[in-house]
Design brief:
The protein has 6 helices and 6 strands. The longest helix is centred in the last third of the chain and has 37 residues. By secondary structure, the protein is mostly helical. It has a domain of 98 residues. 70% of the residues lie in helices and 9% in strands.
Length: 195
């Protein structure tokens, strides 16, 4: 009786099933990340996966992202310098510190989980997923660049942009990219199977 009700509700959800599955995978992968990765976001020295030190790739990405954003700011005429390998300092003494949470490795992990557990043909996933990871990387660079500009001119908006607008826009971008997959590849396959 209960099983039949659940099946009926699931069928009535129709096109919302995919969105429900997307949200479930996002929440589970975020939970798994938080349970397995530990470290101080403000201190890029030690990051652990269980008891294994996985700091090296995160520290590499922190330095890489800092260098690229500094280069972009310099190209656009904003003179910047650094006191450390992970900070971007402006001439007005305002600065941004890039930490491991700014690397988008977590968002890449969540994106990979979503695409791994999303239905659809594997052959297009071989190029769709790497393209999505590139998109996550580029959006993250844009996000750090925008946050840097905000800190340089309007530091009072840092929290709004860093913790709210750009954070949820990041997940919105992942959702839109997943929707593209659903529309162009997964639905097409499902429609061919039902004909």
């Amino acid at each position: 009786m209960m099983k039949e009700r659940l099946q009926k509700i699931w069928r009535e959800l129709g096109s919302l099933q995919g969105i429900f599955i997307f949200m479930l995978i996002l929440l589970i992968s975020n939970f798994v990340w938080k349970q397995t990765i530990s470290g101080d976001e403000g201190n890029n020295q030690v990051l652990l996966f269980g008891t294994f030190d996985i700091s090296a790739p995160f520290n590499y990405m922190v330095i890489h992202i800092t260098k690229v954003v500094k280069m972009l700011l310099t190209i656009l005429g904003y003179p910047v310098h650094s006191h450390f390998v992970n900070d971007i300092c402006f001439v007005n003494h305002r600065h941004v510190i890039v930490v491991w949470g700014c690397t988008a490795i977590k968002q890449s992990f969540i994106f990979l989980c979503i695409m791994t557990f999303t239905q659809g043909p594997w052959k297009p996933k071989l190029w769709f997923v790497p393209l999505g990871l590139l998109l996550v990387y580029l959006f993250n660079l844009l996000r750090i660049f925008i946050i840097s500009l905000i800190v340089q001119s309007h530091p009072e908006y840092f929290y709004l942009f860093h913790e709210i607008l750009l954070k949820y826009l990041f997940y919105g971008l992942i959702f839109l990219y997943w929707m593209l997959w659903e529309e162009k590849f997964n639905r097409k396959v499902n429609n061919q199977l039902s004909v």
